[in-house]
Amino acid sequence: MTTWIFISFLTFTAFAAGLTWLITRRDERSSSDGFFLGGRSLTFPIIAGSLLLTNLSTEQMVGLNGAAFNDGLSVMAWEVVAVLALIVMTLFFLPKFLKGGITTVPQFLELRYDRYTQSMANSIFLIAYAFLLLPIILYSGAVGLSHMMDLQALTGIDEPISLFGNVIMPETIILWLTVFVIGVLGLLYSRFGGLRTLAVLDTINGVGLLVGGMTIAYFALNKVSGGEGIIEGWSILREAAPERLSSIGKSDQSVPFSTLFTGVALLNLFYWCTNQQIIQRTLGARNLAEGQKGVLLTAALKLLGPIYLVVPGIIAYHLYKDTGIGADLAYGKLVFDVLPAPLTGVFAAVMVGAILSSFNAGLNSTSALFSIGLYKHIINPQGTEQQMVRAAKVFVVSIAIMAMLIAPVLAGQDSIFKYLQKMNGIYFIPIFAVVVVGLLNRRVPAVAGRVGLITGIVVIALGYFVPFCASALSSAGIHEFHFLGLVFALIVGLMLAIGAVSPRKEAWQIVYTNEVDLTPWRGAKWVSLILLILVVAIYVFFAS
After folding, report:
1. Do residues 219 and 304 touch, judged by C-beta distance below 8 A?
2. How many of the other CB atoms lie within 10 Å of CB of 536?
3. Integer Rg of the chain from CA
4. Cβ(364)–Cβ(190) under 8 Å?
5. CA 351 to chain centre
6. Which residue in 214, 202, 232, 186 sits closest to 366, CA to CA?
7. Which domains does the chain have, with CATH numbers?
8. 0.85 surpassed by pTM
C-alpha cells in the first residue's frame, strides 16, 4: 500500500512542477515587479487559486480539522467569516492599495505615515514570519504527511537512536526529516521562481486540493455509514452528537459565537486585507477588475471550506474519540484510513503543494519586505533592481533555514491552529488598526502610527504572557478574542486622540501611480451582496 502511495505522490508532484515550468519558463524575474508581483499581470483565476492555496496549507487542513475534532462545527467561523473580510478587501482596501501602486504593506505605511513606521512594521512582519508563520507551516505539514503517508513504515525508521547522550524517538526523527525535505523544496521554488511561478503552481494544486478535500469528506462519511451513503453518514453524526454540528460556538469552545464580532472578525480582516503573505497575490493583479473578481471567487470558494476543513475533523472525532489520538494527528490518520492508496498519494502530493504554497508565499513576502523595506532604504539605497532581487534571494535562504530549525520545537501544542491564531493577534491587531485609521482619517500624524504599533504589541504581550494580567483577564471573564477587540479599540482611540491634539498640517492623499487600470468590476457589489446573504443563511441553517 505504501508503495502505491509513494508512486502516485511522485507522479503528481512531477506533473505539477513540469506544468508550472512550461507555463512560466519565459517569465521576467530580474526586476522587483517581475519577481515580487508577477509583473502585475495576474488574472482572476490565478489570483483566486493562489489566494486559496496560500491560505489552505496544513495549518488549515491539519489545524482546523484538529480544532473541529475538539469543538465541532463552530470552528467553521474561520472559513465563513473570512468571506466577509474578502468582501471588505474587494470594495475598500484593494482599490486603495492598487491606486497607490504599493508592493508591501509597510511600503503603504511609509507613504501614509513615515519611514520609521514603515521600518517598525517591516521588522514586525519579518520577525513574525521567521519565528511563527513559517515554522508552523513546516511543523503542521510534517505532522500531517507523517500520518497520511505512514512515513514510519515507508522509511523503515522504527527504532530510537542515541545522539549526544539523548534518546531520539522514531516520531521525532521523521518529524525533523520531513521538515527538512519540505523546507528545502519550498526554498528551491521560492529561490528560483517569482510570484507568477508560485501563483501558477498554487492554481494547479488548488484544483487538486478542492477535489481531494471533497473526496475525503465523501469517503469519510461513507465510512461512518458503513457504505450506506453520505446522507446516512451525516444522519449518524447528527444522532451521535447533535451539539457538535451547531454553528453557534459555546463559551467553553475555542470560538464562542460572540467573538465573531470582535477578535475573530478583526483577525480575519487583517489576514485577508493587510497580511503581506496574502495580499501580495492581489497586488499583482492586471487591473482592479481582475483583482476584485479574483478576491470574490476566493470568497465563494471559502464557503465550501467547512466541507473539507471542518467536517473531516468531526468525522475523525466520531471514529477515533476513544483511541487517544491527538486532535492534530487525527486528520492524517483519517486520510490514510479512508482513501484508496493511489488517491492517498495524489492527495499527499497536493498537500505538499499546499505546504509549499504557504511556505513560498511567506518566503516571497519576507524577501519583498527585506529588499524593499531594508535593503533599498538602509543597506544599499543606491543598489540596482538586480542587486535588490539577488539580496532578497540570499536573505530567503537564511530565513528558510531558521524556520526549519524552529519548526520541530513546536511539537506538543494542544492545538496548533489555536496557538497560531493566538500568536497572530500580537501583530495582526496593531498593524490592522494603524492601516485602518490611516485610510479613514487623513489628518492623523505620523507619530500616531508609531504609538499605535508599540501600544498594541505591548498591551497584547502583557495580556498573554504576564501571569498577573492574564489572570486578571480570566477572572473578569474576558475571552482572549474579546481582549483583542478591546486592544483594537484602544489603539484606534489613542490614534484619533493624537490626531485631534496634533493633526497633520495637510490632509493625506493617495497619489494614483497609474500602475494598473482602476475601473472596478461592475458585478462586484452584487456578488458581494449575494455572498453576504449566503454567510447569514449558513449560520442560521446550522444554528441550534
Report:
1. no
2. 11
3. 23
4. yes
5. 14
6. 186
7. 2-542 (1.20.1730.10)
8. no
